[in-house]
Amino acid sequence: MNWQKCREFQKKIRDNLVLKGGDFDYRNLLAVDISFKNNKAFVAAVIYNIKSNCVEKKYTLIKKNKIKYVPTFLAFREVPYILRIVNKIQRNYDIILCDGHGIMHPYRAGLATHLGYLLNMPSVGVAKSYLCGNFDKPGSDYFSHENVYDDTGNLLGYALTNRKNTKPVFVSPGYKISFEKSLKLIKLVSGKYKVPEPIHVADKITKKLRDNND
């Protein structure tokens, strides 16, 4: 993997970033998650109905993996496998939700931004771990949140308490959606878990695939 070329592609995405979207009229979202073990990638995608808060379809994929994880380059490890599973799915979804960052990334090009850019679709990232930005700790109450800013004061997204008395998750727009709508989406599809329900379901699937392929 030529990491310098990867960095240049991230800069290209950053320079062509589109965040403002249309009305919030999303019905179905595609949630994706990946687990890795023993040089294999275990991929899950679920179609989730936002209006009724239920999973409508599930898709899985297992592929050999030779790409190592390098900080700030996560998308280059995961996107190839996600695109493979996306190509199996009829496009009956309006937005993509990723277990990873959107523009809350040093080059404004996290996993969700990559996918949105490549598929030309609205996308949102929600990550369990901090990558960059400055923020105050949000309150412990459900849906308490604080803005996350870069070093020059530009908004990157939100630190959100998605479950009482837990560490926050990090929400940011990926592509073709505003900050406010990104946060609204995460609140709509969140339930009793720290991560949104669609991501929780996809994560359980990948872990089951991984554990069944020892």
Automatic annotation (TrEMBL):
What cofactor does this one take? Mg(2+)
Q: What is its main location?
A: cytoplasm
Enzyme class name: hydrolase
Reactions catalysed, semicolon-separated, are:
Endonucleolytic cleavage at apurinic or apyrimidinic sites to products with a 5'-phosphate
Question: Which residues does the annotation list for site: Interaction with target DNA?
Answer: 69
Q: Where does Mg(2+) bind?
A: 33, 99
Top-level lineage group? Bacteria
Could you tell me where this protein is found in the cell?
Answer: Cytoplasm
Protein name (record): Endonuclease V
Organism the protein comes from: Candidatus Mcinerneyibacterium aminivorans
